[in-house]
Amino acid sequence: MSDLPSIAFVASDAPQAQQALAELCERYADTPPDSAEVIVALGGDGFMLETLHRYLQRGVPIFGMHRGSVGFLMNNYGPEGLRERIARASPVRIHPLQMRAGDMRGREHEGLAFNEVSLLRETRQTAKIRVTVDEVVRVEELAADGILVATPVGSTAYNFSAHGPIIPLGAGVLALTPISAFRPRRWRGALLPHTAEVRFDVIEAEKRPVSAVADYTEVRDVLSVTVRENRDVALTMLFDPEHNLEERVLKEQFLS
After folding, report:
1. Are strands 136-144 and 146-150 parallel, antiparallel or unpaired?
2. CA 96 to chain centre
3. CB 160 within 8 A of CB 103
4. Which of 134, 86, 120, 81 is nearest to 213 (CA)?
5. How many alpha carbons lie under 13 Å from residue 3 in its C-beta half-sphere?
6. How many angstroms separate the CA atoms of 216 and 235, rounded?
7. Which fold would CATH assign to domain 97-229?
8. Are the CB atoms for 40 and 10 separated by under 8 Å?
9. Phi-psi region of 251 (alpha: psi -120 to 50; beta: other; left: phi over 0)
10. Global pTM?
11. d(CA 126, CA 124)
């Protein structure tokens, strides 16, 4: 990548994101995403995740600017000196989780998640799930609203709302967090090495149906789900040095 990279601008449908898109395209040359050296995403965290998935095969760095509702994964918006900001930005290399799910119809599904893979009950009935880590059963029967596996990047999102731990980037661990656990009631989850493979088996699947979600991929009526980090897939996110993601993840642990 050159010192002053070619940029592709993409934006969510939010009015402020579209306004920023028009402003930046007028100020800078807008390169098509298929040939740009950097993609600038304008929106919130949801749009950032969408952008990561959309341009996964390109493998170019993505620099987000906050023009949405939640902007934890985004830099502050500012149209001035954008090329220079990108040139001095700090890179963060991330790997997604790979989900493989089998449903009650015998079909197999796959999905990638940069935030988390979550299993959620579909009805009023509490889900019952067996949890296996690296072929060892760790929880014979979890009765809960669900359970999730989160990456460090995703640990501040749904995982944190479910009272899971915030994980510093580069810690080499994943969060395994139950969602509103009823039995075992005192189990709060676990930290797993990033090399671990987690398997979930749904107990009484017809009576207690469960869905599995990997970012934007949802599979209904699952019987079993395996989750592991896919080290063969990687993306680079860019952050202003004074607004770097590592510091924000660390800071989140000290907020009341």
Report:
1. unpaired
2. 7
3. no
4. 120
5. 0
6. 17
7. Tumour Suppressor Smad4 (2.60.200)
8. yes
9. alpha
10. 0.88
11. 6
Catalytic residue, from 3, 30, 34, 45: name it. 45
Is 225 in contact with 212 (CB distance < 8 Å)? yes
Domain ranges in the chain are: 7-94+234-252, 97-229
Which is nearest to 115 in space by CA: 147, 150, 146, 74?
150
Count Cα atoms within 13 angstroms, Cβ side, for 60.
24
- Answer yes or no: 134 catalytic: no
CA atoms within 13 A on the CB side of 13: 0
Tens of pLDDT, residue by residue over 51-106, are 999 999 898 999 999 998 888 889 999 999 999 999 999 999 999 999 999 999 99
Alpha-carbon distances, residue 94 vs 27, 82, 123 (angstroms)? 30, 23, 34
**CATH superfamily of domain region 7-94+234-252:** Probable inorganic polyphosphate/atp-NAD kinase; domain 1 (3.40.50.10330)
